[in-house]
C-alpha cells in the first residue's frame, strides 16, 4: 500500500508524525508531501527535525498568499505529484488551506482522501478553517473523528459511512514527546522561569490578529495580567502588530516575554510547567487539558467543546474583565484551580496513529479503499 501524506503547517506536522510512524512500524513507507504553507525554520523544519521526519519526498514551496492564491497554488502543485505518484490514499489533517487543497486535488483524481481530525465544527462560517473542514470532510472517503461529538457533527451532515472515532493524534504526540521535552529542553532556564509561576500565551488566529481593534484589546488584557507571561509569537501576529504600529506598545509591557515561535520540545515543556495557558490555538487547547493545565481560550467559540464540557477550558474571548477575573480566581482559589487542572482528557489514549494505520491497511487489503460514487448507500 502507498499512502501519501499532504501537510504544510506546524500543527499538521506535529499531529501527523504519529500516524507516519505507525505506518513505518508496519513496514509501509509513506510518501511525504510538504506544501510549504509554513516555511520559516521555526514554523516547519524544527518540527521535521525534532519529530525525525527528515525524508520529505516533495517540497512544494507554496508559501504565503491570499486564501485563493495559497489554496489554488497548493492544489495545482499537489495534483502534479499525485498524478505522477498515484498513491492509494491521501491523508490530510485538520483544517488549513493545505488540507482543503490536498483533499480537493486528490478526490478529483479519484484517489480516496482520509481526513484525520474530521468532524470538528466551530459553527462559525466566517472562519477560513470552518470552510476548510466542512469541505475537506465532504471530499473525504474515510473520516477519523477524534471524539463522539465530532462523529455526531458528521452524522448531522449526512456522513455516516467509513467514520471511525479514534481519538486525537495530539495525545500520541504529547505522550511520545513530553518526557523527552522534560529531559532535553532548558527553556525554563533560558527565560529565567520557575515552574507554575507564569502564564503561557499564544494568539495567531485571523479573527484576533487581522484587526487592529482586536489586537489592541489583546494588549489591554496583557497590560493588566498580574504574573509573568511568555508569548512565543506566530509570525502572522508579529507582522500585524508591526503594520498596525502596535509593536512599541508590546515592548513596553513589563511582565511580558515575547519570543520567536518555539520548537515542539521547548513548547511542550513550557506548557506543562505553566500555571495557566491562554490561547486561541486549537492544538494548544487540546494539549492543555492533556497536560492538566487550566486553559483560557481567547475566542468566542471553539471546535473543541469537549475541553469546555470537561471543565478544563473557559472561553473568555477578548473580554478584559472576564479574562482577568478568571486569572485572578485561578491564582487565588486553590479548589477552583484544582478542578480545572484535573479535568479529564477527552481525546483518547494516545494510540490514534496506530488505529488510523490499522484501519486504512485493512480497508486496502479488503479492496474497500476507493472513491465511491455515492456515500449514501
Ligand atoms: C494557518 C491556518 C490556521 C492554523 C495555523 C497554524 C489556514 C487558513 N490557517 O494559519 O488554521 O492555526 O496555520 O499555525 O490555513 N508566515 C511567516 N512564516 C511562515 C508562515 C507564515 O512569516 O513560515 C506569515 C506570513 O506573513 C503569512 C502569515 O504568517 O501571510 C499567515 O500564514 P498562513 O499560513 O496564511 O496562515 P496562519 O496564520 O499560519
Ligand atoms: N507549538 C509549538 N511552538 C510554538 C507554538 C505552538 O511547538 O511556539 C505547537 C503546539 O504545541 C501545538 C501546535 O504547535 O502542538 C499548535 O499549532 P498552532 O497553534 O500554530 O495551530 P492550531 O492548532 O491553532 O491550528
UniProtKB/TrEMBL annotation:
UniProt xrefs under InterPro entries: UDP_GlcNAc_Epimerase_2_dom, WecB-like
Lineage of the species this protein comes from: Archaea, Methanobacteriati, Methanobacteriota, Thermococci, Thermococcales
Name of the featured protein: UDP-N-acetylglucosamine 2-epimerase
Species this protein is from: Thermococcus onnurineus (strain NA1)
Domain spans labelled UDP-N-acetylglucosamine 2-epimerase: 25-360
